TrEMBL record:
The chain crosses the membrane at residues 7-26, 104-124, 136-159, 165-186. One of its GO terms (cellular component) is membrane. It is found in: Membrane. It is a multi-pass membrane protein. GO terms for molecular function: symporter activity. Its main location: membrane. The keyword Transport applies. This is Putative inorganic phosphate cotransporter. SUPFAM superfamilies: MFS general substrate transporter. Keywords: Membrane, Symport, Transmembrane, Transmembrane helix, Transport. InterPro entries: MFS, MFS_Na/Anion_cotransporter, MFS_trans_sf. One of its GO terms (biological process) is monoatomic anion transport.
Length: 202
């Protein structure tokens, strides 16, 4: 019954979203019926085409900082997705939570991740305004985002089957992982704004 209701709500929300999208979003600013001339002029000024610079692949592939960044990216991605995929399984199979009845419990760690990652980005901006070097900010937030979850998960192994404590630790683990979004993930843009997309995809 709960699943049926949630499906109806999600479908309805999807339909409302689609209607809003079709009515409010347009292919280009020029095709938008409600854009003012001033706003259109401002948008055009901000989108002056820059000459395309070829990717300096030799410099890229021999860059030690870039390889360190890629190693951090691979490690974090593996840990993040392992936790993301296995946490609900752990809650269901080991702690015997019925996730169909309590979907909020399964979503709680991800909610923490979203909330903390927003807070971490605000914190990073605040620290930059105070004059702290960007490399120190990124490394500090990245350290919190990597070691925080590791410590939380290590503690899970020693608390026994205490569901409330374990759920709190899983929430804290994914929450602390949110600091990494203002750590290594933002470093791609710091290192090379023109090639950040390519670096991120590597």
């Amino acid at each position: 019954m709960v699943q049926e209701k949630s499906c109806i709500y999600i479908r309805t929300l999807g339909c409302v979203w689609f209607i809003l999208w079709v009515s409010l979003i347009h292919e280009t600013p020029e095709s938008h019926p409600r854009i003012s001339k001033e706003e259109l002029s401002l948008i055009r000024q901000g989108h002056e085409k820059k000459p395309r610079v070829p990717t300096p692949w030799k410099s890229v592939l021999t860059s030690v900082p870039l390889w360190a960044l890629l190693a951090a990216h691979c490690g974090e991605t593996w840990g993040f997705y392992t936790l993301l995929i296995q946490a609900p399984t752990y809650l269901s199979n080991i702690l015997h939570f019925d996730l169909n009845e309590n979907g909020l419990l399964s979503a709680l760690p991800n909610l923490m991740l979203s909330t903390v990652s927003i807070f971490a980005s605000i914190l990073a901006d605040h620290l930059r305004k105070r004059g702290i070097r960007i490399s120190i900010i990124r490394k500090t937030l990245n350290t919190i985002g990597f070691f925080g979850p590791a410590i939380c998960l290590a503690i899970v192994a020693f608390v026994g089957c205490k569901p409330v404590v374990i759920v709190a630790l899983l929430c804290l683990a994914l929450g602390l992982n949110g600091f990494a979004f203002s750590g290594f993930i933002a470093t791609h843009v710091d290192m090379s704004p023109d090639f950040a997309g390519r670096f991120y995809c590597m």
